[in-house]
Amino acid sequence: MNSMAIVAVGGAVGSVFRYLVGIWAVRLFGPAFPWGTLAINVVGSFAIGLFLEMILRRFGGSTELRLLLMTGLCGGFTTFSSFSLDFVGLVERGAMPLGIAYLIASVVLSIGATFLGLFIGRMAF
Fold it and tell me: Where are the transmembrane segments (predicted)?
């Protein structure tokens, strides 16, 4: 299978997961705060850190596996562009303090989750 097809398959699965998490978050928490996007970015950051450690460093994974899981799945799942749009939406609605809280939480938690994924990947395997 060629590289673009592998990325496309992973991206399709990641996008569907992103859609389902977004629906779940709105049903669970309501639409006032972008909880779904925040959760997706944190989980996606954790997953990419874990995949990096597992695929590239622990198991000598193939280029195809890296393309499928990291570029495709995580790329289709994470939503940084949606994060940006959510932030702008909060600011434009006049919810600057909530927007700043969302900005800080997204960046700090997502980067922290990446480190956690790397740590767990290193300790578990």
Answer: 7-26, 32-55, 67-88, 100-120
**Count of Cβ atoms closer than 10 Å to residue 117 Cβ:** 22
Half-sphere CA count of 40, side-chain side, radius 13 A: 28
Q: Which of 23-27, 54-58, 118-122 has the lowest mean pLDDT?
A: 54-58
Q: How far apart are CA 75 and CA 6, in angstroms?
A: 12
Neighbours of 56 (CB within 10 A): 14
Distance, in Å, from the CA atom of 51 to the CA atom of 66, rounded to the nearest integer, reads: 8
The Cα–Cα gap between 26 and 48 comes to 24
- Indicate the DSSP class of residue 31: S
CA distance 125 to 110: 22
**pLDDT tens digit string along 8-25?**
999 999 999 999 999 999
Alpha-carbon span 77 to 38, nearest angstrom: 12
Could you tell me the two tokens for 54? 């597992």
Quick check: 40 and 21 in contact, CB under 8 A? Answer: yes
Query: Residues comprising the binding site?
Result: 75, 78
Residues flagged as binding site for Na(+): 75, 78
